[in-house]
């Protein structure tokens, strides 16, 4: 008779993995919150003449805590966490800075100590909150149709948020930025192993040659044509993105959507910089 041994995972191991995953999600949500909201603060500072205030280390620390808190709270709401857990995790963002601000105001700690110390104290505070709610089993909330529609178009929203400050200060980018556009497709296509069809690789290499040639022409050509060529390169790549979004080949459709919107916004802003300059 043959005995079969079945290994049953320990409940503690599953709980540890769930805790680690939860903390990793919180960190990612915090970073996303900072990346998405920082341009909005800069735009608001420019419009309201508050750039100097935002540049203060104490204000900057609280703004950073706010950005991280909003990103994290939004994700916790999406994951179905309760209000108490969300409020405590938000407090873990602010309390470290609130503890360090009085010594900073008194001149006992420097700017770097304020920012670094806040982050170092924040991590154990997050772990403590997560441990207090480790036995909770949140359930994702049902999405409102409007929320579901926004979520489906998240690449567009991300691109618009990333480019929001360009509308305030349109500028002509360096011609060499055009090389980033085809390079992204080549890198992602290689990672996704899309080159089994050699025709796809040939098309991408042709695109690289085209945008590289456009960049070189913008650098060596007359100065009054540089901006126009840069704008044409970005706008042209938006069409390239649209074609790939329809086919779904080489890059994921989400990337093609994000890249297309961002390219179009950048191209339009370069054109505006030329018209306003």
From TrEMBL:
Transmembrane segments: 20-39, 59-77, 89-107, 170-188, 200-219, 255-276
Record key words, sorted: Membrane, Transmembrane, Transmembrane helix
Domain of life: Bacteria
Entry protein name: Uncharacterized protein
Source species: Micromonospora globispora
């Amino acid at each position: 008779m043959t005995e079969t041994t079945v290994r049953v995972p320990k409940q503690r191991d599953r709980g540890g993995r769930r805790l680690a995953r939860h903390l990793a999600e919180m960190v990612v949500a915090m970073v996303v919150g900072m990346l998405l909201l920082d341009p909005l603060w800069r735009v608001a500072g420019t419009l309201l003449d508050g750039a100097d205030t935002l540049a203060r280390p104490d204000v900057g620390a609280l703004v950073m805590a706010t950005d991280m808190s909003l990103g994290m709270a939004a994700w916790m709401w999406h994951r179905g966490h309760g209000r108490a857990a969300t409020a405590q995790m938000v407090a873990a963002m602010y309390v470290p800075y609130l503890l360090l601000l009085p010594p900073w105001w008194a001149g006992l700690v420097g700017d770097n100590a304020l920012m670094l110390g806040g982050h170092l104290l924040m991590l154990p505070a997050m772990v403590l909150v997560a441990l207090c709610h480790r036995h909770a089993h949140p359930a994702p909330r049902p999405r409102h149709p409007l929320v579901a529609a926004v979520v489906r178009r998240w690449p567009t929203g991300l691109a618009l948020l990333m480019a929001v400050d360009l509308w305030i200060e349109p500028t002509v980018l360096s011609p060499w930025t055009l090389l980033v556009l085809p390079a992204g497709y080549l890198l992602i296509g290689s990672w996704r192993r899309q080159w089994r069809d050699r025709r796809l690789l040939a098309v991408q290499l042709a695109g690289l040659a085209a945008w590289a040639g456009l960049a070189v022409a913008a650098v060596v050509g007359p100065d009054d044509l540089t901006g126009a060529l840069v704008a044409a390169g970005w706008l042209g790549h938006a069409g390239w993105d649209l074609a790939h979004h329809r086919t779904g080949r080489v890059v994921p459709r989400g990337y093609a959507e994000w890249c297309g919107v961002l390219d179009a916004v950048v191209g339009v802003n370069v054109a505006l910089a030329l018209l306003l300059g």
